[in-house]
Amino acid sequence: MIYWTVQGQATSESAPFQTGTPDNLGDFLTHYSWPVHATTGERCNFLRLPVAELRWTLGQGDKGGFVREATGWKPSPLQPVVNVYALSQAAGMGGIAELA
C-alpha cells in the first residue's frame, strides 16, 4: 500500500480518503477543516496537490525515494497501489511475458 501524508510548515497528517492509516488516529480532515483558497473560497482538490520529489541518492535518502530512483515511476496524488507489471515496465524490466 502507498501511504500519503499532508505536509506543511507545522503539519504532518495522514492524507484524507485513505483506509488503514498507520496510527489509526484519523486523517487531515479529522483534525482540520477542509482547506479553501484564500481569495476564491474554492475547496482544495487533494488530487491536484503536488507530489514531493523524493530521492534516494548519496547524501539524500528520502523515505519512499528508492522506488522513484530505481524505476523512474512517480505515483499520482492519493494513489493507493501500483500494478507490479506497470512498475516493472517503468523500471525497464520488460513486460508481463518476461516476468511470468
Textual characterization of the structure:
The chain has four helices and four strands. It has 100 residues and is α+β, with helices and mostly antiparallel strands. A hairpin with a 4-residue loop joins strand 1 and strand 2.
Write the layout of secondary structure elements.
Blueprint: E1 5-7, E2 12-14, H1 28-31, E3 56-57, E4 60-61, H2 65-71, H3 84-90, H4 96-99
Antiparallel strand pairs: 1-2, 3-4
What is shown here, in short?
This protein is of the alpha+beta class.
Structural class: alpha+beta
Number of strands: 4
General form: elongated
Distance between the termini: 22 Å
Poorly predicted regions:
none
Number of helices: 4
Chain oligomer state: single chain
Summarize this structure as a short list of keywords or feature phrases.
100 residues; alpha+beta; 4 helices; two-stranded antiparallel sheet
